[in-house]
Specification:
156 residues; 2 helices; alpha+beta
Length: 156
């Protein structure tokens, strides 16, 4: 009896394996995009939180005044880093209404507040779109932009 000995895979088997690999790779890539967004949010938060120490140095050097916080070179560089990590395209150093494209810094003699848009929304339903830090030590996510007259991070 002479039998045909088949070695290798059939075309259907190969197509099934390729489909499974494609499905698994799409799941992995979707997870990586989520992780990338969360990493960018962490960079925005870190940059804004680091400004607090710089603002206290300015306060000590200016004999008890926060008036130069927004114009300080170190704070400006940190705001640029937060801008680059998030979705903002510009930095605003005056008390204007924040937009999704601006990192805002408002300061007065006795207060300062800085807010930047996050890369991806956080919280339940992705409703926290901005991160805000101020002179009181508040560091909080916000759903709404920073108001033009803000001198601290208000409750969302």
């Amino acid at each position: 009896m002479t039998g045909k000995l088949n070695k290798g895979f059939t075309l259907i088997e190969l197509l099934v394996v390729i489909a499974i690999i494609g499905l698994l790779s799409s799941v992995v890539l979707a997870s990586l995009n989520t992780a990338r967004g969360k990493g960018a949010n962490a960079a925005v938060k870190s940059n804004l939180n680091n400004m607090r120490a710089q603002a206290e140095v300015i306060y000590d050097n200016a004999n008890g005044s926060y008036s130069g916080v927004c114009a300080d070179n170190g704070v400006t560089k940190a705001m640029q880093s937060a801008r680059d990590a998030g979705t903002a395209t510009s930095i605003v150093l005056t008390a204007t209404l924040q937009t999704t494209a601006t990192v805002n810094c408002h300061n007065a003699n006795d207060s300062w507040v800085i807010s930047a848009p996050l890369k991806v929304g956080e919280g339940s339903g992705g409703t926290l779109l901005y991160w805000c830090v101020d002179y009181k030590g508040t560091s909080v996510g916000r759903a709404t932009p920073l108001a033009a007259a803000a001198t601290e991070c208000p409750a969302s």
